[in-house]
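Quick one: structure for this chain?
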Amino acid sequence: MPTSLALNRARPATSGELTGRRVVAILGLSFLVMFVANVALIYFALHTLHGSELDNPYDASQAFNSEIAAARAQAERGWKVNVMTRAEGEGERIVVEFRNRDGGPIPDLEVTARFQHPFDAALDRVASLASDGLDYEGVATPVRPGRWRLVIEGKRGSERMFRSENPIVVAGTEANPER
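Got it. Here's what it folds into:
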């Protein structure tokens, strides 16, 4: 009975063959891509918008209906309010004009203006505005150039009579660009 012997010779790998080295290279590249993607995601998560922070989200959700009622009462008053800001020294001067339906001034309010930084509450600045009998004004110091939310609140006693939130941009001055 004739037998044929097959000789095991090492053959060079062709380009379409899957070898151990190729499997290791593919796995290594896969993990490298995942590692680079994770590093990029971590970087952007730490260096972009941080979202809003609430001390107690449950209480904030429960106060929503009272906020709606206060906004309706404010709208019924029909007050006209004009807010102006300008750089002054190291800070920002705020002038607020409150007018009733007939165009007359609204006296005896306790008015505050708060510059809220979009991401860092430690940068927020508050100014109490004093009345000159016609308008309310004060200075918040120092306010960095950039985007802010200007919150104006007017109270009589413990009752909030007015509230507005206004997105503003504070420009740097040429005399003091590092405000």
